[in-house]
């Protein structure tokens, strides 16, 4: 798992920061969690939601399999907030902890073996829940455009699975779509190539083809290479 590589974790954190993540997704999450003291951040990565939640006064339990990622959260933790942060380096599917006021699962459902069971576990262990997944059909990203140019079929759509699971659980829910355009900065072309290969689950034989596609798709300015990305995400609140 590339996220368990220290150098890649650092690259991921910098890459996402340069891309302006979490962008417009942060405000509705913070707003929805007002009044909910304890929050489980499932698949927290390097803390793009963990840190703002701590700064907003929440107590946060991070469930992140890769310690290389959560170590960055610990490093970024604001002064005086460490006592409100707990870190568990394990898969969400193995959760046996206490029930929290709220739980968020933001772009983390993709790596789970059974999305239905993961959603049921979220429902059982929190009162307020937020799941965010991509609306791939409306997105324009380097990975997605590379996928199209290579003739690889679209990635799995988790939206029908979430809707089906919530209906089975008989849980009322609302869905809000957030669209945003942000420049995706290519910090290191070699690592960007490796990142795309990783996300598309390709082998190293694709390296030159992917690198050429990235060069073709990107533009240049005084700051370097970038791609004008369009992000579309569905926020499920239940």
Describe this protein's structure.
The chain has 238 residues and is of the alpha/beta class. The protein has 9 helices and 8 strands. The protein has helices at residues 6-18, 26-32, 50-55, 67-76, 115-124, 142-149, 159-168, 189-199, 207-217, and strands at residues 38-42, 59-63, 85-88, 100-106, 126-134, 174-186, 219-221, 224-237. Strands 1, 2, 3, 4, 5, 6, 7 and 8 form an 8-stranded mixed beta sheet that branches. Helix 6 (142-149) packs across helix 9 (207-217) and helix 8 packs across helix 9. The longest helix has 13 residues, at 6-18.
The strand count comes to 8
Shape: globular
What class, by secondary structure content? alpha/beta
**Count of DSSP-assigned helices:** 9
**First-residue to last-residue Cα separation:** 31 Å
Radius of gyration: 18 Å
Which stretches are low in confidence, meaning pLDDT under 50 for 5 or more residues running?
none
Largest sheet: 8 strands, mixed
- Spell out the helices and strands N to C: HHEHEHEEHEHHEHHEE
Task: Name the average pLDDT.
Answer: 95
Strand composition percent: 25-35%
Residues in helices, as a percent range: 25-40%
Helices, strands, pairings?
Elements: H1 6-18, H2 26-32, E1 38-42, H3 50-55, E2 59-63, H4 67-76, E3 85-88, E4 100-106, H5 115-124, E5 126-134, H6 142-149, H7 159-168, E6 174-186, H8 189-199, H9 207-217, E7 219-221, E8 224-237
Parallel strand pairs: 1-2, 1-4, 2-3, 4-5
Antiparallel strand pairs: 5-8, 6-8, 7-8
How would you describe this structure in keywords?
238 residues, alpha/beta, 8-stranded mixed beta sheet, 9 helices
């Amino acid at each position: 798992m590339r996220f368990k590589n220290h150098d890649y974790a650092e690259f991921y954190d910098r890459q996402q920061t340069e891309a302006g993540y979490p962008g417009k997704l942060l405000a509705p999450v913070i707003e929805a969690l007002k009044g909910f003291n304890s929050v489980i951040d499932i698949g927290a990565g390097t803390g793009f939601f963990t840190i703002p939640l701590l700064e907003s006064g929440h107590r946060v339990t991070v469930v992140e399999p890769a310690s290389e990622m959560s170590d960055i959260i610990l490093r970024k933790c604001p002064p005086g907030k460490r006592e409100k942060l707990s870190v568990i380096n394990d898969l969400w599917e193995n959760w046996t902890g206490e029930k929290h006021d709220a739980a968020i699962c933001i772009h983390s459902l993709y790596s789970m073996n059974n999305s239905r069971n993961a959603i049921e576990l979220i429902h059982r262990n929190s009162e307020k829940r937020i799941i965010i997944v991509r609306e791939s059909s409306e997105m324009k990203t380097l990975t997605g455009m590379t996928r199209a140019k290579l003739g690889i079929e679209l990635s799995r759509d988790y939206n029908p699975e979430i809707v089906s699971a919530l209906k089975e659980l008989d849980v009322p829910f609302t869905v809000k779509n957030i669209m945003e355009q942000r420049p995706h900065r290519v910090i290191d072309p070699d690592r960007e190539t490796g990142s795309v290969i990783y996300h598309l689950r390709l082998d190293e034989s694709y390296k030159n083809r992917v690198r050429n596609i990235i060069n073709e798709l990107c533009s240049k300015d005084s700051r370097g290479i970038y791609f004008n990305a369009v992000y579309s995400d569905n926020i499920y609140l239940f």
